[in-house]
User: Fold this.
Amino acid sequence: MKSIISILPDHIANQIAAGEVIQRPASVVKELVENAIDAGASKVYIRIKDAGKTLIQVIDDGKGMNAQDAEQCFLRHATSKIHKTDDLFNLSTKGFRGEALASIAAIAHVTMQTREEEAETGTQLLVEGNKVISKEEVVCDKGTSFEVKNLFYNVPARRNFLKSNDVEFRHIRDEFERIVLAHPDIHFTLSHNENEILNLRSALLRKRIIDVNGDRQNERLVPISEETSIVKITGYVIKPEFSKKTRGDQFFFVNNRFFKDAYFNNAVNKAFDGLTQSRTFPGYFIYFEIDPSKIDVNVHPTKTEIKFEEDKNIYAILISSIRQALGKYNIAPTLDFEREQGFDLPYEMLNQPAKEPQIKTNPHFNPFATSQSRSDTFRSSGKNNTALNKLGYGENKTDEQDWKNFYNLDGIEEQQQEEQQEMTIDVDTQQSDQFIIRSPYLIFPSKTGLMVIHGKRAFERITYDEMMNEFIKNPIASQTLLFPYEKEISSGEEVIWKSHSSLLKRLGFESEIKKGMLSLNAVPSILQEEAINDCIDSILENLSFAEIDKGDIAHVLISNIAASVGKSKVIPANNEVVRNLIEMLFQCEQHTYTPGGKSILKTIALTEINQLF
Ligand code: ADP
Ligand code: MG
Assistant:
């Protein structure tokens, strides 16, 4: 029988491949502009006619190509960006497949001019349906210019599938925005039908965002910034009150490459939880910088999806960095405190049942104001003398200055004090006998009655906040056990423990599992030996819940550790320690409830006491 298999001619194979890479004019814009950036351009000029259906021109001042490369670049799998497999895992360029130009040339009329800086003349090439029609030496500017005309001229089905010019141009603009926001240092110009749409000079990121989105955006941006050993996160979130009803400004970039990620988007939503109205979408421009070997960009042909090796950790870091930023820049205090002799108590607490504090925004906040915010003062004062140290976990001395920083707020602008009313608990350190210690309770007189604090739960809350803050920056300090802690675990528990091993390690657990026996050589140093068993039990129990949200794992684990630490604490009958404990508790944003939702403090009103008699 006659053979029936034949190899597709190149032009057909290219047309098929083109269908994947080039779906519409916007895809051409993206590929050409990305090539310009990879070529080291400092200026990129984009000229569009009829939403790209008639013409897409991209001119750059990058490194250009020599005559041979100028021809080669249109071949399939022609790339200068990877040479060996390893390069694939260390990409610093946008392109690497060598498919874009071959694809574009398969379905359009392309004219290219290119010249390397040191060459006197450049090369001009005319390519149609992957065939080189003409090649000549020309005098031209340094860099490269691509003119793409009559897109899909030979694929009528595609051409007919294109939407109206308005819609197609919107796609172009979307792609353009994703690129220019990733490269504020490059000057971009976009024109449509000879009208200049955007002319974006090289600028700092904030300015670039404003140039793209309009001046109004300026006062809405809240900077975020977090650097950890895993990832560096910078950028801006839009203040919650300006969240939109549509998914407008949601941009993630990793190593200056735009990507979409429902999982990280969920982290942002979590961070904004309770701050936005329902059915609005938080806006963000978030930039991750990460070792390229820890991500895989190769999962999608058009490369907007990216796999992260440490996605769980990054999720937790992301939530925390956004919350911190919103707290620092945007939040008025969670509670108002009223001054009185002796122990002042939160006004709200005196009159109302304790409730979870809400984050409030301050409409007058000026992000450019240089004065230090109070929360900065708190943070810096706590640096070398952390809450945990104060509570006897390490260095024991109390730093008088910290105390003053917290309560007196020296050196902070008055106006800011008015605008951002923070809690001001006026504690007189001399009056040390104002409270009664009945472990686990600490009881204080208050203006309207008595306040009772559950001391162990206060420890739990403080431990949680400290650990969470530490965890997002560095692995948690661990202590090696003299005798390894051993525990028999089921095969199911073994799977659970192993699947979270990197997170558990970051939290300070050094473990091995042998023949159904979990053996811990080191545990978080904050965890006392007598609390280990309880802690491991609750971790295993909690991680077994199938419905546990991936992003909540760090929260769950740290909550478990904190709860075990809290439970194992004995409240010493020592006024100094207790005063520090209360001070630290009130520094926690959420000091009325434990991370697990149990009440930490209650007030008993005088009226209630009266009823007893
Ligand atoms: P990739 O970008 O994946 O390498 P492309 O088909 O987009 O594949 O481009 C092929 C090659 O052509 C690139 O690797 C690069 O060497 C060269 N090239 C493309 N555009 C430009 C440009 N604007 N300036 C200089 N070289 C370019
Ligand atoms: Mg490319």
About this structure: The two ends are 108 Å apart (CA to CA).
